[in-house]
Amino acid sequence: MENEPSPLDTLRQLKEWLDAGTITPQEFETLKRKLLFSENAGPPASTPPPAPEKPAVTAADQMYPSRSAATPAPEPPRPPEAEQTFTTSGPVEDPMLPPIVPPVTTGRAEASAVPPVSPAPEFLPPQETVRARTPDPQHDEVYPAAGTLEDDTLPVPNDAASRNPLTTVLIVGGIVALLAIVAYLMLGNKESERLTSTTITAADTLSTRPETGPQAEQIDLPPAAAPETIRVAPVIPTAPATADTIGQAATPALAPATTAPAEEAVTTPDAATDADAQTRIQGVLNAFYEDMQAPPFSASTYLAPQVERFYLMQNTTPAAIAEEMGKSYFPEFLEAQNQIEPGSLKISPPVNDGSRVATYIEKIQSLRQSMQKHQQTRAQVRARFDKNFKIIYLRRERLLENTFNE
Predict the structure, then answer these.
(1) What is the H or E stretch that residue 166 is in?
(2) CB 308 within 8 A of CB 393
(3) Which of 70, 116, 337, 343 could be cross-linked to 365 through a Cys-Cys bond (beta carbons 3.0 to 4.6 Å apart)?
(4) 330, 397, 325: which is closest to 368 by C-alpha?
């Protein structure tokens, strides 16, 4: 046939399968030997197929024909098919592959290479038909008949039981009793004997003092006097007293008149003193902010020996403040320009201990080392000065502005 593949194509196909891993080298060698042997060996002699044997008929098949299948009719013998012969040429050797040499085998090995194939039987043995098994009938105890199922519906109530007069009387009586109780509680005008008793006597109207147990003696303390602010006035030398008895007698009478102006001076604020205090406080603050622009910072010049608060530090000393400023403030805030916004300074009158409170707006411009940006802030500050005009309290109460520029 023209479309049959040549042995060379078959060998190449086997080589491709071997390279792809589809077959193993042992299978490749076996198939290659078969391909070479089929070329060298001639077409074998055709042998007629054996005649099919007719199955023997047993006595059971004659007695029980219904249990055995019908014997199929023998088929007519088929003509032997002529084996196809192929005319092939020698394989073309690939220059990239080793030369193909047919293996040297003996005749016994060639005979055992192709095992004989037994012909397939042309008929199948008879098979017995299997009768379908019918289920056994079930008893009525297992599956009761449809008419014998119990009725699970509720029975119809008897009219005689529902119309029992005793039940009706009990229901009506309970409803009437409930309504009577509700009406009694809502409409009853029975007065309370404890509150509006008509048997009150004159003894019941006497007011008696409640009895009390033994108590400690109450001590009446005098009212505490309010603290007064005393201002010490400079001592003015007085004129020498005369020996006149009239002047000596008049001196006690004039004493109350001389003390009155002194008390009036205590209550009236001195305008000159307030102006001087404001000037001194403003000078202290200007020097304080100017000293904060560059190290070193002399904290003891502006701060009291014991400081209640200094920005975020509490209950500290000037030495600790100077150390903290040199460690954290000056390395971070460079090129600082600190000042008080003009017209924002306000000073309160002095209190009992002579301290004053000052409020103002501070403006700070500096270069932040960690951010490499210029920072400008405005904040509301409250400061308290002692009688020696030393700072004992300094805190930013509110941040008004905080901007950064390149």
Answers:
(1) helix 165-187
(2) yes
(3) 337
(4) 330
Question: What is this structure's pTM?
Answer: 0.36
Question: Could you tell me which residue, 152 or 391, shows the higher pLDDT?
Answer: 391
Low-confidence winner among 14-18, 223-227, 339-343, 371-375 (lowest mean pLDDT): 223-227
pLDDT value at position 320? 93
**Is 187 within a domain?**
no
Question: Cβ of 326: how many Cβ atoms within 10 Å?
Answer: 13
Are the C-beta atoms of 381 and 362 separated by less than 8 Å?
A: yes
CATH assignment at residue 344: 3.10.450.50
Specify if 397 maps to a domain: yes
Of 99, 114, 129, the domain-final residue: 114
Give the C-alpha separation, 350 to 273, whole Å: 10
Per-residue DSSP letter, 300: G
Q: How is the chain split among helix, strand and coil, in percent rounded to 5?
A: 35, 15, 50
CA separation for the pair 289, 234 (Å, rounded): 36
Query: Could you tell me the pLDDT band of residue 44, with boundaries at 50, 70 and 90?
Result: very low
Q: Specify the pLDDT at position 323.
A: 92
CA 212-218-224 angle, to 5 degrees, is 145
Q: What is the pLDDT of residue 227?
A: 59
Confidence at 235, pLDDT banded by 50, 70, 90:
low
Span 98-136, pLDDT tens digits:
555 555 554 444 444 455 555 555 555 556 565 666 666
Q: How far is CA 105 from the centre of its chain?
A: 82
Q: Is position 364 within any domain?
A: yes
CA–CA distance, 187 with 304 (Å, rounded to integer): 82
Please tell me whether residue 279 adopts helix, strand or coil conformation: helix
As separate numbers, helices (DSSP H) first and strands (DSSP E) second, the chain gives 10, 7
Determine, yes or no, domain membership for 361. Answer: yes
3-class state of residue 256 by DSSP: helix
Query: Is the confidence at residue 53, as pLDDT, over 70?
Result: no
Domain extent at residue 370: 273-405
Task: Quote the number of domains for the chain.
Answer: 2
C-alpha–C-alpha distance, residues 163 and 159, integer Å: 6
DSSP state of 389: S
pLDDT value for 257: 39
Q: Which of 114, 129, 160 is the last residue of a domain?
A: 114
Whether the Cβ atoms of residue 326 and residue 297 lie closer than 8 Å to each other: yes
